[in-house]
Amino acid sequence: MVNDKCSKCGAELPADSKFCSDCGTIVRKEIDEQINKSSPVTQDEAQNILRTRYAKGEITKKEYTKKKKILQK
């Protein structure tokens, strides 16, 4: 079952995808789960993911600031 499209290349993704099978990009929902601390990653890893997403233009400054505050709690 197709659930989403890759945010980088637009390929269709199965519902349980963690990575795009075409370009290898981590599925955005997977990153959001990590940042929201629902996945077992360290705070440093989550901050690195967040900075990378912002640097690549995948999230806005407003989203970056909001998620950064969540991580600092």
Sum this structure up briefly.
The protein has 73 residues and is mainly α. It is built from three helices and two strands, in the order ββααα. The protein has helices at 28-35, 43-55, 61-72, and strands spanning 2-5, 12-14.
Q: How would you describe this structure to a colleague?
A:
This protein is mainly α. The protein has one domain. It has 3 helices and 2 strands. It has helices spanning 28-35, 43-55, 61-72, and strands at 2-5, 12-14. A two-stranded antiparallel sheet has the order 1-2. A hairpin with a 6-residue loop joins strand 1 (2-5) and strand 2 (12-14). Helix 2 (43-55) packs antiparallel against helix 3 (61-72). It is globular. It starts with a strand and ends with a helix.
